[in-house]
């Protein structure tokens, strides 16, 4: 099977690094494996959860030449999102063609390389390399490439995982938008316990989802699960309304909804009732044979995506765990091949001439034997001395390398500790507030973060076409985050030139 530019591979290993699950293909059969191994004839593909990346849309002028597009995108992203200049984020993008305006539109996926390192730390220890890492919503492209869905239109895909959930929209078979939902299986479990009023073990919650249909069950959990699903579909409906408005879509033609685990309740039936959109189960037949009862749909998507032609894949690959190049492409390999070629040429010198010279050299060698014997002991001792000197130099070099490595690891650990303590909190709050701004149609112009011994503050410079949108946003934030954060906005200023209202919202953490 051909998978990418590296050549042909015997099988594909799909990796879910979040729950340490692996599925391997053998011809057309898929099997779950608990002990993946390094095999150079094996193609490895994995995915990143939507919540692990920053997903945003930006536009740039069509006057920018193609060769400068990437630099323009990177520069604009760092400025508009106020990204930390000290971090070299991995930024990948897909151009979208929605014809909303004359600028070129791009859908961006932005991720801190440290997140990738931490996510795949255990996986890489087992299999050494990962050929392809892609954001999970982009795997859905395989459904169109395999012609499983062959009609145009606007399709919405909703999928629930243990530690994430996402909604993705494709228009005319191309990716348009994605968003992480706060309804992962773990988050659903926590919310269910709140509604139920007492703690339920997560494994019992999953067992209920997998075995009890809400149509038939008489369980005490039934009414609370209905409440949970009502909240979930209400949030999904809000997101769909935003997508339709943002991308000027008349309607969503179909919804496909599924889960990482088997759920006895027909989610697509609930979705069709709650959303009033034609809905189907997110469970496609890719033609694989499997002896397993249930394989995560994302594993099936990865297996299918790995086999589609390269020109139908999105040019987005976040892997930093590359396999070593072929021997003949390595610098060391080229040198060895050059040396070998030189030796072959040298030994092609006429053997006959060597034979004649050998007789004379033998006579000379006999005369030198006596002299060599006298110096043998001296040479042996000199070699010992030279070896000791070389060993001393080697030991000094090793000591310097160990000292350098120690300092690198020490600095890395200090940086990791700092990032773990500070960055996730700020990134989570930034994502949370940005989502609230988007819901109220208030645009974020810039962000300032200040911190001292007594306080931590965000200052959001906001823009809106109406001052009421800003005031409603502040009212909403004050009610929602009561007793958590303090919100202050001194005034809202109208700009005659731009026709927009602006204000600085100060959030004390």
Describe the structure.
- With 509 residues, the protein is of the alpha/beta class.
- The chain has four domains: 184 residues, Nucleotidyltransferase, domain 5; 135 residues, ATPase, nucleotide binding domain (Nucleotidyltransferase, domain 5), CATH 3.30.420.40; 76 residues; 69 residues, 2-Layer Sandwich (Alpha-Beta Plaits).
- The strands form five sheets. The chain has a six-stranded mixed beta sheet, covered by helices on one side. It has a five-stranded mixed beta sheet with strand order 13-12-11-14-15, with helices on one face.
- Helix 7 crosses helix 8.
- The radius of gyration is 31 Å and the shape is globular.
- Please give the share of residues in helix: 40-55%
CATH topology of the largest domain: Nucleotidyltransferase, domain 5
Per DSSP, the total helix count is 12
Main sheet strand line-up = 10-6-3-4-5-16
DSSP strand (E) fraction?
A: 15-25%
Q: What's the alpha carbon Rg, rounded to whole Å?
A: 31 Å
Largest beta-sheet characterization: 6 strands, mixed
Low-pLDDT runs of 5+ residues are: none
Overall pLDDT confidence? 85
The number of distinct β-strands equals 20
Distance between the termini: 54 Å
């Amino acid at each position: 099977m051909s998978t990418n530019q590296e050549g042909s591979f015997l099988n594909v290993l799909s990796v879910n690094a979040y729950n340490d699950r692996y599925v391997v293909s053998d011809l057309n059969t898929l099997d779950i494996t608990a002990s993946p191994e390094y095999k150079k004839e094996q193609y490895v593909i994995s995915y990143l959860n939507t919540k692990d990346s920053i997903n945003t849309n930006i536009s740039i002028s069509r006057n920018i030449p193609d060769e400068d597009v990437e630099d323009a995108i990177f520069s604009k992203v760092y400025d508009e999102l106020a990204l930390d200049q000290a971090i070299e984020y991995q930024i990948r993008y897909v151009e979208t063609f929605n014809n909303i305006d004359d600028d070129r539109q791009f859908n961006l996926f932005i991720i801190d390389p440290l997140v990738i390192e931490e996510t795949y730390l255990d996986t890489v220890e087992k299999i050494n390399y990962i050929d392809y890492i892609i954001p999970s919503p982009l795997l859905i492209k395989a459904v169109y490439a395999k012609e499983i869905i062959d009609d145009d239109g606007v399709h919405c895909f909703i999928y629930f995982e243990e530690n994430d959930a996402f909604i993705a929209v494709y228009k005319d078979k191309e990716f348009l938008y994605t968003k992480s939902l706060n309804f992962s299986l773990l988050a659903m479990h926590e919310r269910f316990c709140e509604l139920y009023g007492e703690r339920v073990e997560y494994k019992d919650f999953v067992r209920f989802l997998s075995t009890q249909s809400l149509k038939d069950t008489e369980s005490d959990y039934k009414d609370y699960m209905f409440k949970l699903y009502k909240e979930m579909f209400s949030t999904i409906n809000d997101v769909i309304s935003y997508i339709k408005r943002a991308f000027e879509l008349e309607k969503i033609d179909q919804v496909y909804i599924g889960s990482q685990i088997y759920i006895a309740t027909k989610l697509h039936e609930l979705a069709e009732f709650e959303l009033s959109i034609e809905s189907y189960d997110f469970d496609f037949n890719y033609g694989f044979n499997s002896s397993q009862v249930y394989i995560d749909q994302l594993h099936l998507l990865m297996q299918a995506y790995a086999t589609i032609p390269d020109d139908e894949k999105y040019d987005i690959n976040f892997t930093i765990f590359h396999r070593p190049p072929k021997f003949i492409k390595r610098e060391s390999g080229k040198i060895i091949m050059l040396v070998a070629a030189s030796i072959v040429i040298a030994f092609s010198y006429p053997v006959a001439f060597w034979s004649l010279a050998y007789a004379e050299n033998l006579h000379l060698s006999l005369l030198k034997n006596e002299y060599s014997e006298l110096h043998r002991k001296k040479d042996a001792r000199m070699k010992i001395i030279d070896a000791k000197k070389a060993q001393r130099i080697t030991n000094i070099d090793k000591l310097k390398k160990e000292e350098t490595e120690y300092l690198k690891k020490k600095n890395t650990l200090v940086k990791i500790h700092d990032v773990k303590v500070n960055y996730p909190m700020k990134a989570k709050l930034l994502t949370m507030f940005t989502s609230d701004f988007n819901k109220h149609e208030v645009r974020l112009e810039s962000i300032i973060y200040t911190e001292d011994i007594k306080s931590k503050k965000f200052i959001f410079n906001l823009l809106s076409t109406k001052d009421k949108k800003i005031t409603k946003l502040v009212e909403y934030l004050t009610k929602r985050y009561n007793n958590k954060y303090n919100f202050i906005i001194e005034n809202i200023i109208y700009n005659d030139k731009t026709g927009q209202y602006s204000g600085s919202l100060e959030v004390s953490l």
